[in-house]
Amino acid sequence: MPGCSRAQLHYADGMCGIVGYTGRQRAVDVVVDGLKRLEYRGYDSAGVAIVADGKLDAQKRAGKLTNLTEALKAQATSADGAVFEAGTTGIGHTRWATHGAPNDLNAHPHLSEDGSIALIHNGIIENFAQLRGALERDGVFFASETDTETAAHLLAREYANAPEGQDRLSEAMRRVCRQLEGAFTLLAVHRDEPQTVVGARRNSPLVVGRGEGENFLASDVAAFIAHTREAVELGQDQVVRISPTDIVVTNFDGTPAQTREFHIDWDASAAEKDGYDYFMLKEIAEQPRAIADTLRGRLTGTGEVVLDDVHLTPAQLREIDKVFVIACGTAYHSGLVAKYAIEHWTRIPVEVELASEFRYRDPVLGPKTLCIAVSQSGETMDTIMALRHAKEQNAPVLAICNTIGSTIPRESDAVLYTRAGPEVAVASTKAFLTQIVAAYLVGLYLAQVRGVKFGDEVSAVVRELEEIPAAVQQVIEVSEPVREIAQRLKDDKQILFLGRHVGYPVALEGALKLKELAYMHAEGFAAGELKHGPISLIEEGSPVVVTVPSPKGRSVLHDKMVSNIQEVRARGAKMIIIAEEGDDVVEEYADELIRVPHVPTLLAPLVTTVPLQVLACEIASARGHDVDQPRNLAKSVTVE
Ligand code: M6R
Question: Domain check: are 110 and 93 in the same one?
Fold first, then answer.
């Protein structure tokens, strides 16, 4: 492979899935199986390195994991497959390239010059240019354009200088980490250490799986859940060495580190497709269970909401005079929904901010500002940086998160876990609904602590929430008409989504799902805002999806929406209307009508979002797209 001059572009890897294994099984099988479960984290390239009998061998391919597995199959029948056949220690990587074109050259693992060390990386080494320059001046040859390769060469150098013994690779790794700036998870193997994998973690996810006679490292427990449900959480700036029998964790300075063991309460089948065509369809179907689990045990007999881990006193919470919800993408939309409920129940003003914007506009924060960080993965870098900014300003942070032990809950003052189970499809579905439920529980908790709601009032809302799983189930069971509508819309160029009140963030979420999966132009609008500009987008036959508020209770919202429907219909729009059973008024305006059961207004997003998820999934499938792994995206966005 040709070397690269420093003037060329360098490519770093943002999200990526990482697996390490040492034990008694054929490592390549365990590692590739783990990568399959992590492919949602990135699918630009994949690679593995295996160690056996004083030899190290690596294979890597651009594109999806199947390209690598094909190459491995071909190799298995040739003489080159010996190390892969015999090795019981290995590492593997699936890449989401942050900058530049992904190709074989830049795929991981990266090797030291003498081929003794293989290293994989998730994150960005910010000072790699200086480090690479120094190495090149010393005559080191670079085979790729990545920042990662710098760490591989540095590790080889430090290994040569580190004292011999079983800690040698860890010590070399610690020395390397002390030179690196940025965010990184690194895993490495050395050909002379056939039963050792060393990992390092700063700001990117890494978790240890504790097996019997075998141990694992991975960016997500899904990679090893088929082998063990016992895990060890790593902290920031830690190095871990695993052998088949030992897990040794140290800080970057070499001192022993504090770790926390935890049990994973879901099993491998939770991360399988289970007969569904896509993970997304399975995850949509799991929503009733996910909501029920998120509610379970969260309410005491006296109507008190129980958070998981709270280092905030009721006195502190009584002082809160402002709430910020900080999140990205779908999680941000859940915050927009929650704003309506939290303000209504607590009378505290709530602002919902895109995490990527939050710290750059110098928000007014202090000990009386509660920041709620919402994240499925718990590893979204924009959200992590926003929460750190909030903490620097002494604002308490409460996490709503789906991933136990991830960075966001670890760094927050209080946590409420959503219990959605693993979400594998890149498009978020069950996480969204459970985030809304969790944020509602937080709102009720605040209302109660502050004395603006009595226990019986809180219990009444929770009882309404407990009815939601059955309503969502009903929507899922009658989603056939949505599939048929999807067939009719699949060739359109643009779809607009309208909503009012809590239906507005639902419209934003419906549009995001469609953009992300179907690659169609889609926008969500507050229905009342349409006449202030966007209505000019409407042409004869333009599809417009509308979620109609319940005619019961807040019928003013319903009536306003009906007149908005008439406005767009008069311009020739094709109306796809999602309305409550029994709402006869809308029938005459609907080209397509999707019925949902009646639920209280604030809870409506929990049912009206579901047909929009199905619609996006089915349109994407009809257009021939990879529903679970849409182009250019990765599940967890661990770069800013
Ligand atoms: O893991 P997080 O909830 O922090 O992720 C936030 C967004 O990246 C995520 O919701 C994204 O928008 C989804 N792919 C949307 O379906």
Answer: yes
**Residues 6 or more apart from 217 whose CB is under 8 A from it?**
18, 19, 20, 21, 187, 197, 199, 206, 207, 208, 209, 240, 242
Q: 220, 283, 328, 627: which to mutate for ligand 1, most atoms within 8 A of CB?
A: 328
Do 376 and 424 belong to one domain? yes
> Confidence class of residue 67 from pLDDT cuts 50, 70 and 90?
very high
Q: In what order do the strands lie in the sheet with 247-251?
A: 110-111, 117-125, 182-190, 197-202, 238-242, 247-251
Q: Pairing mode, if any, of strands 197-202 and 238-242?
A: antiparallel
CATH number of 560's domain = 3.40.50.10490
pLDDT tens, 445-467?
999 888 888 888 888 898 899 99
3-state secondary structure of 503: helix
- Residue closest via CA to ligand 1's atom 9 equals 329
CB 521 within 8 A of CB 494: yes
Residue nearest (by alpha carbon) to ligand 1 atom 16: 427
Q: Which of 219, 352, 377, 417 to mutate for ligand 1's pocket (most ligand atoms within 8 Å of CB)?
A: 377
Q: Which domain holds residue 288?
A: 271-466
Active site residues: 16, 635
Q: What pLDDT shows up at residue 15? A: 66
**Digit-coded pLDDT (tens) for 570-581:** 999 999 999 999
Gap from CA of 56 to ligand 1 centroid (Å): 37
